[in-house]
Specification:
With about 180 residues, the protein is an alpha+beta fold. It has five helices and six strands; from the N terminus they run αββαββαββαα. Helix 1 (about 1-25) runs parallel beside helix 5 (about 150-185) and helix 4 runs antiparallel to helix 5 (about 150-185).
Length: about 180
Amino acid sequence: MANAIIDQAKEKMKKAEANLQRELGQIRAGRANASLLDRINVVYYGAPTPVNQLATVSIPEARVLMITPFDKSSIEDIEKAIMTSDIGISPSNDGNVIRLVIPQLTEERRKELAKEVKKTAENSKVAVRNIRRDAMDELKKQQKNSEITEDDLRDLEKEVQNTTDQSIKNIDAITSEKEKELLDV
């Protein structure tokens, strides 16, 4: 029972890390990144469909995303979806492929984005700490109900803390990687 609590906490912490990775992937760093298109859905035959299910997304150059639709008739729908999205890049359509040229970031914008990265990372750390608190509360409840001994509680709390420390270390690594990507010119 107590191990289930720890396993659940580990799983939730992994999800918090994955969520951070996903959120940071959507922050433009002046380089082409296919995850920029993850939130864009195209109305295709009446159904909202993700771009990556309608086309191949490639990166022929460092600052260019190339979208090659499987069905050429959907190219205008894809272009319209990109224009109405919040990514702030105008697509260029040559009839066969859509190109997105990612603009170079100014130094000021890079610093703003770095702050945003730190804020997002801090939110992830708070989520991890909340998961730790919930796990600790559950373990204390079990000890109070005599389901586990005090020694078991101490060992399990130590394990939860170690898991938390590792998760926060992972979040810091993900964050510093993104900051490096943003601030390296």
